[in-house]
User: Fold this.
Amino acid sequence: MSDEPWISPNQAREALINSKGAGVKLAILDSGIETNHPDLSGLKLLDDVVIESRGGKINTVQGSGEDVFGHGTAVAAIIKRIAPEVDIGSFRVLGHFKESRAEVIREGVREAALRGYEIIQCSFGAPARAEDTSIYKGWLDALYLRGIHVVSSGSNAGFHTPEWPAYFPTVIAVGACPNDSTKLQLNKDSMVEFAITGHEKTIPWLKGEKREVFGSSFAAPRVSAMLAQILSAYPGTHPLHAKSLLRQLALQSRQR
Assistant:
């Protein structure tokens, strides 16, 4: 007998109504999280980790509640608004200009997996270059085999613009829909299969500030939060089944 729950779309929909994400560990791979931002008061990170590349070496050091760009703080705020009881860890893999390297991201993913995170939230993308394929595919396959869910934003250039890690089938890839719909939508002809609003009129940013934002980076955390709600109600749901459930929910929302 398998210990993986097999739940229906109706049960998943109920979880989206009633669950607050309690008991689920979600790792935000981003530019850090400003924990003292007034709009994030009370946020206690399970982990605050910085992945650095210096002198050709990748180092993991303790963070200090700092965001070097503002992006990660916005992502955290979106997730906490939808799933307020989810446990968040910050793994800073992006720099002051939202830049990174595939090796730094891989180390951030490895650290999150070792620390028992069930969802890896990636609001970034890299051009789908052949030389990076094995790096991304390697860690995505390893996470899939361990039952760890990966949610990634697609390219802001369009749903058919290939970027890593979104353009792998084991990933829940999310783009920003143009109509600001808060209902999950399905793209049947793209590897970026899901769309939802990526527009936030006011969201926490760097140094206690707020700003208006739009893009797939802010659509993906909505779906990460939805996934946390489902996993909170039904722990152990496999990534393949979770993605199928989200597809069914998107199809049903279209029919209503």
Q: What stands out?
A: The longest helix spans residues 239-255. The mean pLDDT is 94.
